[in-house]
Amino acid sequence: MGATLLTAIALMLILEGSLPLFAPALWREVFRYLTDMKDGQIRYLGLSSVLAGIALLCLLVFWN
Fold this sequence. Notes:
Layout: H1 2-22, H2 24-35, H3 39-63
């Protein structure tokens, strides 16, 4: 269980670091756009991300 969690965290860090590594100007624009959003919009994005992650996790767990 611990190795799986560390693997998931490592993959998340790789994915999160890819945009600023390969396209820093785009990352800056996206970040600037996010800072201009209202709290409700940011919460909606967060909720959407969590639900997509849960759905993907359920698919992986129930398919195996």
